[in-house]
Specification:
The complex is a heterodimer of chains A (418) and B (417).
Chain A lengths: L3 H19 L7 E4 L6 H6 L3 E3 L1 H10 L3 H10 L8 H11 L15 E6 L3 H14 L3 E5 L10 H23 L5 H23 L14 H9 L6 H19 L5 E2 L2 E2 L5 E6 L7 H9 L3 E6 L19 H11 L6 H14 L4 E7 L3 H4 L2 H12 L3 E6 L9 H19 L3
Parallel strand pairs in A: 1-2, 1-3, 3-4, 7-8, 7-9, 9-10
Antiparallel strand pairs in A: 5-6
Chain B lengths: L1 E8 L3 E7 L5 E8 L4 H24 L5 H34 L3 H18 L11 H14 L6 H16 L6 H12 L7 H9 L3 E8 L16 H12 L5 E5 L4 E6 L5 E6 L8 H10 L4 H9 L12 H13 L4 H23 L6 E4 L6 H15 L4 E2 L7 H18 L1
Parallel strand pairs in B: 1-4, 5-8, 8-9
Antiparallel strand pairs in B: 1-2, 2-3, 5-6, 6-7
C-alpha cells in the first residue's frame, strides 16, 4: 500500500527528471549544486533547473548501481579513500550520466558550489569542471565555529550573492534577477517548512507515528532538493502532515517496507548519514527489534528548521545566508553535541546511535568524542557502528546487525528487563 | 535436579555450559563449529551433559577420589572415540566399495587406528587435540601414506567424505551407553559404582536455555532465549572475576571491548565491524605462513630480545611483511613478538574507544591463551593506564556460554517469581 504522499513524491521526481531530459531540446539551462546550503529558490527564480549530484549518488546506492560506478571511477584514478559520493557521481558520468529514473541527465551550464562544512564539495566540482568545461560560481559559507551566526558572516554571504552568484545566474540564464519572484518562492518555502517541522516533531508522540531517520530521509527529499519554494512542495508536506495526523489519531506507529510497525520498544536518536546500498536491510535491523528513530541529525543537513529557522521573504538574501550558515554540516562539534542532547531529552530517547561513515570525514571526525560527551551529559548510552554511504564494500551486515542487537539488549538490561 | 544450559555458537568453536540452581558449573562441552551449527549444538550439549554426570559422580562420593574419576573419564572418552571410529570405518567402507577400493585396505587402516586410539587415551598420555576429527585425521593420514596399492589422494578423498558424514552424526545417550564398560576397565572402579548408578539415574531437568554467538539465529530457541555475545561475555567475565569492570575478548574473527558496572551489566562496548584485522585468525594465518602450530607462536615470540616493529595489522599484509623481514635476515622470534604487539595495539585502540581500561580488567577468548599476546597486553596496559589487575582464566573460552547459562538461570528464576 502506497500512501498518497509517497505517490506524490514519486511523481514530483519523475516530472523533474523528465524536464531535465528535455532541457536541451527546450533550451532550458541547468545548474548543478549541493544539498547543504543550496540556493534552490534563487536558482529557480531564474527559471534554471537544479541537479543535485549527492541525491543522484544516494539514489544510485539504493538502486545497487553505485558499486559499479565506484569501480569505474577508481579505474580512472580516483583512490579508494575518496568520498564515495564523488566516485559514484564520476562513475555515473563515465557511464552515460543516466539519472535515477533511467533518463539521461543534461550537462551543467553552471556549477553552483555552496561550500558548507564540506571541503570535498570544492574538489568534487573541481573535477566536474574538468569534465564539463563550464563555469563555477562559488558561495563560500564560513564555518559556525562559535555555535552561532555572526552578523559579519551573514553580510559576507549576502555580499557574495550580490557580487558573484546573482551575476553568474543572470549570465547563464539570460534573465535579470527578479527579487519579487524570489520573495514569492521564499514564502512558499516557509509554508512547506512549517508542515515539515510539524512532521518531524510528530515523533515526540508515543508511539511515534514516523521513523525520523529511515522514513525521514524520504520526507526530506522534496525540501532538500529541487522543490523547495514550489507549490508542489507545499502540497506534498500538507498531504504528508494529513496522513501523519491520521496515524497519531489511530495511535499507529511508523510505516516500514514490511508494513506498519506494531510495537515501540526503543526510541533512538541517530547521528550520521544512513548507508544507502543496504538501506532496506539496515532499516530492517531496527524495526525488526521494534526500534524507532525519533530524531536524527542527517535529516538536518539541508536545514535546521526544527530549531526555528524559516526562509523569510522579507529579507530574501539575508535569509538565504542564514539558511546556508545554519545547515547541520556547518555546525561545530559542541553545537552538534548540544543539538543531539536536546533531541535525546525532547524526544525521550532510550538511546542514540552513531553511524560513522568511512568516506565522509566532515561527518565522522569527532564522532567518538561526541559519543563520549553525550553519554556523560545525558546518561543515555550510545552505540557506534561503521559503514559507508554508497560503497557496498563497507557494509558488513552480520557485524552491524550483531552490534545493533547487542546494543538494544544492553538497553534492555539497563532497564532491568533482561 | 534443575539445570540451565548456555550455548555459544562461535565462528571457530561451539561451547556449552550447564549450571545447577546455585549457578555452579556442572558441565561443559566444546566442539569445532563445522559448517553445521545444528549438529555442533547437539554435539556440544551432549558433551556438557556427559560432563555433568561426571560432576554428579564426584558429588555423590563421600570421600573424594579424583584419580579414579579421572581414569573413569579417560576410559569413557576412549569408548566414545572407538564408537566414532566404528562409524568412520562403516562410512569409509561404503565409499570404498563404490570406488572399487579394496575393503581390506580400509579395514587395515582402521584396525591400526583403533590400536593407536588406545594409546592416545592410555594413562598419562597427552593428546594434541580433544576433537575426534583432529586425532583421527592425523592417524589416518600417516597410515594412508604407507599404503602402496591405492593412491594417497584417493584414500584422502574417502576420508574427507566420510569424516563429514560421521561428524554430523550425533551421539545420543552417550553416558548411559559407555559408562558401564568404562567403569569395568577402571582400576578401583568398584569404589565409584554406587555414585555412578546414582548419576545414571539422576534426572537432569533442563529448566532454561539461552544461546549466543554468531550462529545464534540457528539455535532452535525462541527469540527471548537468544542473547548477544556482548552481554554474555560481560556477565560470564563478571561471574569468573566479580571485580571485572573492563573486558577484552579476542576471538576468531572479532574483538570486543566491553565496560561493565559492578553487577556485570554492560554499560558500553566497541567491536570491530569494518575490518577483522588483528583478530585470532591473524595468528592462525601467521602460524600457517611460518609452518608452526598455533600454540607454538606465543612461546617462540617470548624468546625475542629485539622486537621488530610491525606496522600492518592487515592479516594479508602481515604475511608479506613477515616474508620480507625473514628475507632481511631478522629472527623469527623477533618478528613474531612484533606481530603479537601489533594485534594488541589494535585491541588497545578499541579499548580506548569503549572508555579505556578500568580495574579490574579481564581478558578472554582464544588469544588469551597465547602468552606473548598476554605479555604485550600487560606492557601496553602498564604504559597507557598504569597498574591494573589483569584476570585471565584457563576456562576463558567458555565465558560466553557461561554468561548465556547465567541468563538462562536468572530468567527462569524471574519467571517463577
Amino acid at each position: 500500500m502506497k500512501e498518497n504522499s509517497m505517490l506524490l513524491q514519486k511523481q514530483l521526481l519523475a516530472d523533474h527528471f523528465d524536464a531535465l531530459a528535455r532541457a536541451r531540446d527546450e533550451g532550458k539551462k541547468v545548474v548543478y549544486t549541493f544539498v547543504p546550503g543550496n540556493l534552490n529558490e534563487l536558482v529557480r527564480s531564474f527559471d534554471l533547473l537544479p541537479v543535485l549530484p549527492e541525491i543522484n549518488a544516494l539514489q544510485s546506492g539504493m538502486r545497487k548501481l553505485s558499486g559499479g560506478y565506484i569501480t569505474e571511477a577508481e579505474k580512472s584514478g580516483h583512490s579508494e579513500d575518496v568520498c564515495t559520493y564523488v566516485k559514484c557521481d564520476i562513475g555515473m558520468l563515465r557511464k552515460g550520466n543516466i539519472g535515477p529514473t533511467g533518463k539521461p541527465l543534461p550537462k551543467p551550464d553552471l556549477l553552483l558550489l555552496s561550500y558548507t562544512g564540506c571541503f570535498t564539495f570544492m574538489k568534487w566540482f573541481e573535477l566536474l569542471r574538468e569534465e564539463y568545461d563550464c563555469p563555477v560560481a562559488m558561495l563560500h559559507v564560513p564555518y559556525q565555529s562559535e555555535g552561532r551566526i555572526e552578523p559579519h558572516q551573514r553580510e559576507y554571504i549576502v555580499q557574495q550573492l550580490r557580487s558573484e552568484i546573482i551575476p553568474k545566474l543572470e549570465q547563464v540564464s539570460g534573465r535579470e534577477f527578479d527579487i519579487e519572484k524570489l520573495r514569492s518562492m521564499l514564502r512558499l518555502s516557509s509554508k512547506a517548512e512549517d508542515d515539515l517541522v510539524w512532521v518531524l516533531e510528530s515523533a515526540k508522540n508515543t508511539p511515534s507515528p514516523i521513523d525520523a531517520f529511515f522514513a525521514g530521509v524520504y520526507y526530506l527529499g522534496p525540501i532538500f532538493s529541487a522543490f523547495r519554494g514550489t507549490e508542489d512542495a507545499v502540497q506534498y508536506y500538507r498531504t504528508l502532515r494529513g496522513e501523519i495526523e491520521e496515524r497519531i489519531a489511530n495511535k499507529e506507529g511508523p510505516i516500514t517496507p514490511d508494513g506498519p510497525m506494531k510495537g515501540e520498544r526503543y526510541r533512538l536518536v541517530v547521528e550520521g548519514p544512513p548507508n544507502w546500498t543496504s538501506f532496506r536491510d539496515f532499516w530492517k535491523m531496527f524495526y525488526e527489534e521494534d526500534a524507532v528513530v525519533v530524531a536524527s541529525t542527517y535529516t538536518k543537513v539541508g536545514g535546521l528548521y526544527d530549531q526555528g529557522f524559516r526562509h523569510d521573504p522579507d529579507h530574501p538574501l539575508e535569509t538565504l545566508a542564514d539558511y546556508a550558515l545554519g545547515c547541520y554540516t556547518n555546525l561545530s562539534l559542541p553545537a552538534r553535541v548540544d543539538l543531539l542532547a536536546r533531541y535525546i531529552r525532547d524526544y525521550r530517547a532510550d538511546g542514540f546511535l552513531v553511524n560513522s561513515v568511512k568516506s565522509c570525514n566532515s561527518f565522522s571526525v569527532g564522532q567518538l568524542l561526541m559519543l563520549r560527551q553525550l553519554e556523560e551529559r545525558t546518561g543515555v548510552p550510545g552505540a557506534f557502528i561503521e559503514s559507508d554511504l554508497v560503497d557496498p564494500r563497507y557494509f558488513s551486515a552480520a557485524n552491524i546487525k550483531n552490534r545493533i542487537e547487542s546494543y538494544l539488549q544492553m538497553l534492555d538490561q539497563k532497564r532491568g528487563a533482561a | 535436579m534443575k539445570v540451565f544450559v548456555g550455548i555459544d555458537l562461535g565462528s571457530t568453536t561451539t561451547k556449552a555450559v550447564i549450571l545447577d540452581e546455585e549457578e555452579r558449573v556442572i558441565g561443559r562441552g566444546i566442539t569445532n563449529s563445522r559448517s553445521n551449527y545444528d549438529v555442533a549444538c547437539a554435539v556440544v550439549r551432549e558433551e556438557a551433559f556427559v560432563r555433568a554426570r561426571f560432576t554428579m559422580i564426584e558429588r555423590g562420593l563421600r570421600t573424594p577420589r579424583p584419580h579414579v574419576i579421572q581414569d573413569l573419564e579417560r576410559n569413557f572418552r576412549l569408548h566414545q572415540h572407538l564408537e566414532q571410529l566404528d562409524r568412520l570405518r562403516e562410512a569409509m567402507l561404503m565409499l570404498a566399495a563404490r570406488r572399487g577400493t579394496p575393503a581390506s585396505i580400509i579395514n587395515g587402516i582402521c584396525d591400526e587406528m583403533a590400536i593407536r586410539a588406545r594409546k592416545h587415551f592410555a594413562p598419562g598420555a597427552t593428546r594434541k587435540s580433544d576433537f575426534f576429527r583432529d586425532l583421527a585425521a592425523a592417524d589416518y593420514m600417516s597410515l594412508a601414506e604407507a599404503i602402496r596399492e591405492v593412491s594417497f589422494e584417493s584414500l584422502c578423498a574417502i576420508y574427507d567424505a566420510a569424516i563429514l558424514a560421521v561428524e554430523n552424526l550425533t551421539l545420543d545417550r552417550a553416558f548411559e551407553r559407555h559408562i558401564g564398560s568404562a567403569l569395568q576397565e577402571t582400576e578401583d572402579g568398584e569404589s565409584l559404582k554406587e555414585a555412578v548408578g546414582a548419576a545414571c539415574n539422576a534426572e537432569l531437568v533442563e529448566s532454561g536455555s539461552v544461546g549466543t554467538g554468531y550462529g545464534r539465529q540457528r539455535l532452535p530457541f525462541p527469540k527471548e532465549q537468544i542473547r548477544s555475545e556482548i552481554l554474555c561475555h560481560g556477565l560470564g567475565a563478571h561471574a569468573m572475576f566479580p571485580g571485572t569492570r573492563t573486558v577484552l575478548d579476542i576471538g576468531g574473527q572479532d574483538t570486543k571491548a566491553i565496560q561493565l558496572d559492578p553487577n556485570g551489566i554492560v554499560t558500553s562496548f566497541q567491536m570491530n565491524d569494518r575490518c577483522a584485522a588483528g583478530c585470532g585468525r591473524y595468528l592462525g594465518y601467521i602460524a600457517d605462513e611460518m609452518n608452526l602450530g598455533l600454540h607454538e607462536l606465543g612461546p617462540l615470540a617470548n624468546e625475542s630480545r629485539h622486537r621488530v616493529k610491525i606496522n600492518s595489522t592487515c592479516t594479508v599484509f602481515a604475511g608479506a611483511e613477515l616474508r620480507d623481514r625473514l628475507a632481511l635476515g631478522q629472527k623469527r622470534e623477533d618478528i613474531l613478538a612484533g606481530l603479537h604487539r601489533a594485534i594488541i595495539l589494535r585491541a588497545m585502540s578499541l579499548l580506548a574507544r569503549s572508555g579505556g581500561i578500568s580495574d579490574e580488567f579481564t581478558f578472554t577468548g582464544g588469544v588469551a591463551r597465547n602468552s606473548a599476546a598476554v605479555g604485550a597486553l600487560r606492557d601496553l596496559i602498564a604504559e597507557n593506564y598504569g597498574a591494573r589487575t589483569i584476570n585471565i582464566s584457563h576456562e576463558s573460552i567458555y565465558t560466553g556460554a557461561l554468561g548465556a547459562a547465567l541468563f538462562a538461570t536468572r530468567s527462569a528464576v524471574r519467571g517463577n517469581a
